[in-house]
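Notes from hallway chat w/ T.B., transcribed later so I don't forget. T.B. wanted the structure written out for a chain they're using in a teaching module, and asked if we could keep both sequence and structure tokens in one place. Agreed to drop them here.
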Amino acid sequence: MTYENLDTQLVNALLGDGRASLRSLAEELGVSVTTVSNHLKDLEAEGAITGYSPKVDYDTLGYDVTAVIRLNVEGSALADITERLREQKQMISVYEVTGDHDIVAIGKFTDTDDMNDGIKELLSDPDIKESNTSVVLNAVTEHEQFELDVEG
């Protein structure tokens, strides 16, 4: 086998099973365990793979409310607000965006009271000019990753 596309195939194999052993990955890809190990170390060193973690179903664990929070902030405070949001454990995604809002954050909450408390605390910041929150009714797809295209 040529090593062309090996990194892409390795990433795709790990997306299928992030707990796969080096031996099973080597067998699946048709290369040696040493080759898989070396390529995996390189992918980690480059930052292409940043960790291995479980997929958590927050609904099963009692976080029944997902909120999409859109904020307009004072320009000079953007970095401070996004950092504050990032540090809040229940914010699973925080984005600086273009368009009508400056920040979009996704949060998981145990119930609407928990969500309300979190949002009120956030809105106590004078640098937040405007907010708009939507409660997710149904998560059609969430936390999905996609396989990379393999050339040739």
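Follow-up for T.B.: The beta strands are 65-73, 91-96, 103-109, 128-135. Might be a good example for the class.
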